[in-house]
Amino acid sequence: MAKWGEGDPRWIVEQRADATNVNNWHWTERDASNWSLEKLKSLFLAVRAENAEGTCEVTEVSKLDGEASINNRKGKLIFFYEWNIKLAWTGTTNTGVKYKGHVEIPNLSDENDVDEIEINVCLAKDEPDTNLLALMKQEGVKQISNFTQGMILPTMNGEQLDPAPQPVRKVEERKVMESGNSSNALKSKSVGVKIPTCKINLKDTFLTSPDELYRVFITQEMIQAFTHSPAIVEADKGGKFQLLEGSVTGEFTELVPEKQIAMKWRFKSWPEGHFAAINLTFIDKDGETEVRLEGRGIPASEEERTREGWQRYYFEGIKQTFGYGARLF
């Protein structure tokens, strides 16, 4: 065991006059209630079940009491939430007859497993019996349950990480698919057009070590956290990634732990098949990390959007989510 004051400096907690939370050693907590409220409403209002009898759908979120928070300790995200929910639903038979009912979820909490969450469905007072109640209890409840599984609430700044996305295809599977589509790839090249491109450079400083910051950029769970969106990330050379619901895609071309990340990177709206070359360099600055970004091959018309995207969704998102805030150069 190392003596007091010795060992890896990343794990040494110091008393600092500026009260800086070095490397997020201390517990930090952020309120995620507002984001969760809006996200839960949008999810529940999308519930719709249908069969030969008719259709059932959630028409109103009549009660949503509780709170949610996102916590960070030594770079690890921990989520707490507790909600008491009441929904209104409407059933419509194939002949046009309407029925009304309620759904109550009294214990949507991080402390409960999925099978411990109560979802009670009933008809409104004085409504006659209908087979649509069984439809709502089966298909409707099934959809609602899907929203509670793996619910990593508000991640980034309070954004939720939806149920885990489909895993990245293994390298062997990817090669087979790429070879099978080789003819299409050749066709794409043959009809390609040359576009004017430009180069951008950004520089920012984060209150954490190069090792911690490097992991943020390549770890799927952490990327989902600071982008507030599901992500698919294969963190090795040649590995693919997909962020922001497919708005950003690419491939890692070089990974040097704590030092460098190079990638092929593109916005979905760019000309098909066109990628920019993005290079991130991590420089240790005595307890802080300076990141230098160089982007080449960016469509000239997308220069400002790309610059702002990296600053907002990557740099600022990381600072706000993990507490690595520092001045911007």
UniProtKB/TrEMBL annotation:
What function is annotated for this protein? Acts as a co-chaperone of HSP90AA1. Activates the ATPase activity of HSP90AA1 leading to increase in its chaperone activity. Competes with the inhibitory co-chaperone FNIP1 for binding to HSP90AA1, thereby providing a reciprocal regulatory mechanism for chaperoning of client proteins. Competes with the inhibitory co-chaperone TSC1 for binding to HSP90AA1, thereby providing a reciprocal regulatory mechanism for chaperoning of client proteins.
Q: Which organism is it from?
A: Anolis carolinensis (Green anole)
Q: Which family does it belong to?
A: Belongs to the AHA1 family.
Instruction: Cite the GO molecular-function annotations of the record.
Output: ATPase activator activity; Hsp90 protein binding; protein folding chaperone; protein-folding chaperone binding
InterPro entries recorded: Aha1, AHSA1-like_N, ASHA1/2-like_C, START-like_dom_sf
GO (cellular component) term, any one: endoplasmic reticulum
Ranges where the Activator of Hsp90 ATPase AHSA1-like N-terminal domain occurs: 29-159
Example GO biological process: protein folding
Keywords of the record: Acetylation, Chaperone, Cytoplasm, Endoplasmic reticulum, Isopeptide bond, Phosphoprotein, Stress response, Ubl conjugation
SUPFAM superfamilies per record: Activator of Hsp90 ATPase, Aha1, Bet v1-like
Protein name as catalogued: Activator of 90 kDa heat shock protein ATPase homolog 1
Which subcellular locations apply to this protein? Cytoplasm, Cytosol; Endoplasmic reticulum
Xref: SMART domains: Aha1_N
Its lineage opens with: Eukaryota, Metazoa, Chordata, Craniata, Vertebrata
Keyword flag Glycosyltransferase = no
